[in-house]
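Table S2 (text version). Query chain:
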Amino acid sequence: SLAFVSADCSPVNSVMLLEIIDGTEGGGLVVIKDSVNCPGRCLLKSCVNAALRRKESVHVLGFDVSEEELRAGLDGEAAKSLVFHNGYTDPLCWTGMGTGQLTALHFSAQEIRARISQSRGPEPVTLAVDSLSWVLRHNPTASVCQSLQELRREYTHHSVVRVSTDGLLKRILVLLHSDLHQHGMVDSVCHLASTVVTVAPFSGLGGVVGETAPQGIAMTTQRIKSGKVLQEEECFTVGQDLSVQVYGRPSQPGLTEPEPEDSQADPAANLTFNLRLSEHERQAKDNLALPFAFSQEKKSALLRPRAGGGQILYEPDAADDFDQEDPDDDLDV
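Corresponding structure-token output:
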């Protein structure tokens, strides 16, 4: 179950985290970034549980935990349709148990499509990878990103041309332990994602009133089809039954917004000399005639022709040579 709890956190216009869990954010690649300080597997399992309740076909590529641990807490009746691809028992194929064993060394779009097609039905497919960190540690980053892009393009292509997505890959849920990789590797994976959820521990400074404090803070970045980027930060708690409660945006006590100034600062205040004029000084300044400022009377006197005024007479000399040609005619200008 999903719930938005009103608490002493700042209110939000939309609950992006609940939209992601509910599957209404638009599909595509969803990356959940966590760390050892705040694990994000609970959010991944909440998304998986919600997809199972929507009667979707859910496939899980499990590398970090066993199938029993992953199924713990899922809806008992709905979890029967979950398909777990075991990469936990022998992730590097050291024991060679079974020819169809899932390994991190063979992570490719072709291999994943083949596994999904074995049990594909008319329902839309949700693929969960728990976790991608194991795959990244044993495969080149470019190869992993290329495989994710090919899988993501399958749903994007059918959405653009408006073909029915029944039985096709609708969404890819990826759990990524960001503290195990370099920043460039994490950024490369997140660049492919349409939605990135970064979970961090709740510091206890949010001022939430209630018996149960939020479990963590989810910082969500979502790129919609129009190209606009939406960002939201929300406190959340995941229950034992994988129900999610969102408390809203965490407040930060002690940080107050500066009050708007009613008047601008006076630059002439607190000076050792006086920059202000008295009324008498201002009147004298206004009545002062500047030496290069021409009044209307002075302009009229200078422009008025006077009798007997000087004239300039020029008579060309006979020896003056006047060249009628253009002296710059030979220049290419």
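Notes on Table S2: The beta strands are 2-4, 28-34, 57-62, 83-86, 125-130, 169-177, 195-201, 216-223, 229-238, 244-248. The first strand starts at residue 2 and ends at 4.
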